[in-house]
Amino acid sequence: MAYLIGATGAGLAYLSGNQAEDSLGALPAATQALVSEHADWGLRTLLLFSVLALARLGLAWLARNRTLNYLLPLKLLIILVAIFGQWVLFQTADRGGALVYQRGVAVTSLASAANLPSNKTEETKESAENGAPTYVTSQDGTISWQPRPDEVSALGAVLRPAPGVSAQAVKVIAAESSNDSGLGLKVSGRSLLLLPGSFGDLILEVQMDLSRFEGIFGLAHHVEDISTFQILEVNQNGQVALAVSEQGVRKVLDQGSLTSSSRATKVAVSATGSHYKGLINDKVIVHGHHKPLDPSGAGIFLEGSGVIRLLTLRLTPVRHY
């Protein structure tokens, strides 16, 4: 009975932990990595104690017609596995404690989440002359970009068409009024634009104006080519999807929708281990799982027609500690 109670408790803790994880919203990269590791160890704990409970119930059933001496080796084996389970439980609790006591997760209100530890490092690269892109790369590999309307060389210097993608589907356009800010992208078709470099676990977030665009906007990562990548998609109807495309075969990991009628202005995707999340305006909308992929490209996906104004872009590599 004790094993069954333990497994039930582990299951309830895992389910409540998953709900609490998504309620946290946007987190710093290092904190998000620790949250994912805590969830992974929680699942291992649940599976192990579930197997132990089933094994102990099976042993009790066998004991009806057999002597203790015959079942003693099996009973000792279960005890040894239970001892190992305490180590697994410790690993789970250790990461949970680190989230609370080292990173302050769920201790303060969500309104003060900005006070959580961040990954600020010294900026090492910047270009901003004669219409050149104003992106910055920090020592930890973080790319920050707040484009100006006149950055005509952005396509090719910062955002480059993925292999096999035509460069004709997206063009930079000038600001149409003094109220226009950010980089204007005129879209007519389907395109996948990648940032320089190759990335593993990451958080990619953008702020943009989609009011004059009809179609699908996406944040793509682990892009090998036009047919193999993972993506967070948002369409004009407020539908949100987290999907993976492997050799052109699309699989949806999770779906959701925006809860308000206003158009999204901030979209973010995080990929840490096997955990993939999509956030709209710092709120988790979709959360899926897929096997970890090898480092590769990341950028934005566009399919439709109209004008998108890209206001800010930030890509933060996630490092595990």
Quick summary:
The protein contains 4 helices and 14 strands. It has 321 residues and is an alpha+beta fold.
Question: What would you note in describing this structure?
Answer:
With 321 residues, this protein is α+β, with helices and mostly antiparallel strands. It folds into two domains: 2-115; 123-317, Sandwich (Jelly Rolls). 30% of the residues lie in helices and 37% in strands. It contains four helices and 14 strands. The chain has helices spanning 2-23, 29-62, 68-102, 154-157; strands spanning 123-126, 135-138, 143-145, 160-161, 170-173, 183-194, 202-225, 228-235, 239-246, 249-257, 266-272, 275-280, 283-289, 297-317. Strands 1, 2, 3, 4, 5, 6, 7, 8, 9, 10, 11, 12, 13 and 14 form a 14-stranded antiparallel beta sheet that branches. Strand 11 (266-272) and strand 12 form a beta hairpin. The chain is elongated, with a radius of gyration of 24 Å. It starts with a helix and ends with a strand. The model is unreliable at 109-128 (pLDDT under 50).
Largest sheet: 14 strands, antiparallel
CATH superfamily of the largest domain: Exo-inulinase, domain 1
Assign the CATH topology of the largest domain. Answer: Jelly Rolls
Total count of domains: 2
Percent helix: 25-40%
- Pairing-aware structural class of the strands and helices? alpha+beta
What shape does the CA trace take?
elongated
Architecture per CATH nomenclature, i.e. the level-2 architecture of the largest domain: Sandwich
- How many E strands? 14
CATH class of the largest domain: Mainly Beta
**What is the helix/strand order?**
HHHEEEHEEEEEEEEEEE
Strand content: 35-45%
Average predicted local confidence, pLDDT:
80
